[in-house]
Amino acid sequence: MAQKNILQYVLLGLLKNESLSGYDIKKAFEKDIGEFWQANHSQIYPQLKKLNERALIDKKIVIAGEKLEKKVYFITHKGLQSLNEWLISPTPELSINKNEFHLKLYFVSDKDDSILPIMLQEQIHLHKTKLMNLKERRDILFENQKNRENNYGHYLVLDYAIQREEHHIAWLNHHYH
Amino acid sequence: MAQKNILQYVLLGLLKNESLSGYDIKKAFEKDIGEFWQANHSQIYPQLKKLNERALIDKKIVIAGEKLEKKVYFITHKGLQSLNEWLISPTPELSINKNEFHLKLYFVSDKDDSILPIMLQEQIHLHKTKLMNLKERRDILFENQKNRENNYGHYLVLDYAIQREEHHIAWLNHHYH
DNA sequence: CGGAACATGTAAAGTGTTACATGATTCA
DNA sequence: TGAATCATGTAACACTTTACATGTTCCG
Hints:
Two copies of one chain form a homodimer.
Chain A: H1 7-15, E1 20-21, H2 22-30, H3 41-53, E2 57-64, E3 68-75, H4 77-88, E4 96-98, H5 100-106, H6 115-141, H7 145-150, H8 152-176
Antiparallel strand pairs in A: 1-3, 2-3
The structure holds a DNA duplex.
């Protein structure tokens, strides 16, 4: 879906509590955020520039090592306002869900098609791996109750992802056996 | 994600069992297919044209009423081959999941933020409505066992969507109360 | 000292949405 | 006869990915 530039709010949200470089943000997309939003560095860097120009974020140059100039961004008052407006706005759209596996499944009409178990098995393997990774992340991030309370939303979405994967695997197994 | 033109396979898949016009296909996206893939008519018509040029589908002109020319497409042998190659190919990518609600949730750090129950309630309502629609569709399409066996993949994905919504609602309720 | 990771950008091509455009048919 | 739906298309814009491009730092 071509959104109303949701990426900008992701960047603002990530900068809400800490200063980050474009590279740090790119890393965030590869981990937690990647669970429900994706973006490459080729989108991130230009968007940070735009947000900077619109004064929603500001930056300071940090020298790493001998001469490497890191641009470390932080949110401005204006940016914080913009973020909050988005946060309190309704979210009437259901998630965008494009699922190539379900698409293929849809086109298998025969209950006894020999490809069905192969397809299911592949997905079971994929989702088991994913579940393991998610659980590992939860254990590292939220082993103690305190982190959970200070990053409640993060805990919630990770918890959701884990339950989703568990249910998905159960469903796949149910139709596989 | 910029896919490797998955849309073409959706069109081929839909044309596998019956001849359809671009408009028919557009309608299919608004119903069943829309659950796991989306496309507008502005993508569909040009893609049908391309598939026709590549001889993966063919068309016949049908006059509706007095002079309305409908283009009714059907799959060719070549198209069927292409579809089958796609169907048996691995599906190593997990689904694309962009979820604005989870994104917002992620940025709510305080467990007692007053916005949390409002956000959850909105989602509960949305997903309950969706669940109702899905169940209605299942009841209409698969009330009898026969349809289920002749359109097994379709039944599977609808069943999955229903279970997914039920679990989602349970999860939302669990954190709402 | 070499490879992996850090760090930042732009360009080109592909995908997707919204808007523009037009006309026919059906049904009340 | 007018409104909703059927029916087909293009244009402009927005978003996303992949490729191109370059240089630094860290660590073994």
